[in-house]
Amino acid sequence: MSPALFDVLAGIAKIAAVWAVMLVALLPNLVWAERRGAGLIQDRPGPNRVGPFGLFQAIADVLKMFLKEDVTPLYADKLLHTVAPAILLVPALTTFAVIPFGSTIPIAGRNVKLVIADVNIGILYIFALTSVGVYGLVLAGWASNNKYSLLGGLRSGAQIISYELSMGLAAIATFVTAGSLKPSAVVDWQVQNVWNCIPQAVGFVVFVVAAFAETNRVPFDLPEAEAELVAGYHTEYSAFKFGMFFMSEYANMIAASAMIVTLYLGGWALPFVTATGVWGGLLSIAVFWTKTLAVIFVFIWVRWTLPRFRYDQLMSLGWKVLLPLSVLNLLAVAWIVASKGTP
Amino acid sequence: MNADLVLFALAAGLAIAFALAMVVQKTPVRSVLSLVVTFFGIAVLSVMLAAPFIAAIIMIVYAGAILVLFLFVIMLLNLNEEAREKESRPVQRALGLVAALALGGLLLGITLRAGTPPVAGPAAGARIPSVDEIPVVGRLLFSDYLFAFEASAVLLLAAAVGALILSRRRME
Fold first, then answer.
1. Is A138 in contact with B71 (Cβ distance < 8 A)?
2. What is the per-residue pLDDT for B153?
3. Of A38, A269, B78, B121, whose CB neighbour count within 10 A is largest?
4. Nearest residue to A114 (alpha-carbon basis) of A286, A272, A318
5. Domain limits at B154?
6. B18 near B41, Cβ under 8 Å?
């Protein structure tokens, strides 16, 4: 087999594997986990009727969404109303391309890197995609021709732009220490030294808080604050278009968790364990997904624990607390790296 | 058929078609969206020229920040349809047409006279080897272009302060 063909086949296999994990294994079961988790925290059973422990609830929900009537409001912008959920969902599903979900695995005598595209711009690719995702929310709000939707869309746009800055600045500090923008290089640095969440605890906290805001999760779910805005930007959506919003929320959550794991929690690495070969590769994949699931559980846990922020609190937290903190963190990290003299 | 050529034609065609759509479109929100697609096409072209960093910056800064703010203003002012012009402004139209034709002719002339590009473009079929461009950009910004870099930083700061002062004054 020629090297080029091998690379193409390996790439397709990796894309198929990642999407299979996300779409088949994670997305439906996350909805179940969220509802059961809510039940656990609120001392009630949660969905427990469909299948063992209610595990097939997700299948029932997806079927329901397919079979429901798809309503478009009479005075909506029909084209944008249809396109908006897709604009949100596609970036959510493609951010995974640059996240290393394992070390390397030997296949047919070669070491295959377990990342779909190990590009030089690395994290910038993710930020470029998430910045396109904003349009999905804003347009959904605008195209519905509904005041609640519009307010939800505006809120989400302002929120995501505000928190993207702190998130980016916090992430840059991890690249300064690693000396590269490649997520795989950041993981390698953490394998050789220490997990970034320890020396860059400030950046870690800023990044996690900003990740909650970027994914519109409680306590930052103002775009869909049901007490004020009915359902925010997706008020006028039904059937599978609503399903796409639902999916993209969870896909974004998975991607954000994977980024937190990659940048701050050592990626696929297990401390004090170095394993290579097929089993080492499989172990690294298992470690990566375990860590990601743990972070996702924190997302769910927080949702059912904290109340929602007020809009002015949200803005002052973003601009007056997180942004200065992330700048200070970056300056401190840059100063330490420069004083050590490493390039 | 050369795959790079097909990709180039697609991206360039997309950019041009949506640039036209932006101008022709009656709804301002759709105009902004057309511009986003245009930037996306340009970003794809930069990736093909082995400059993925530039592509990412185009998407993050222009598509992700500036145009979202455009969209914001349009949505806040609720400009559903461009305000119909009361008079047809024939002089401005004629002047605009002349200026557009002159600019187009200039660009076309330069492109035709330049002949083969000194750097093999994507259409030439030769793929440029991908280097890690970020250290290069960083080094250039802090050596050869240090003055321009710092000057633009100060300019942006001044603009931000100015915007703050203007909005404050209106509030009082």
1. yes
2. 92
3. A269
4. A286
5. 132-172
6. yes
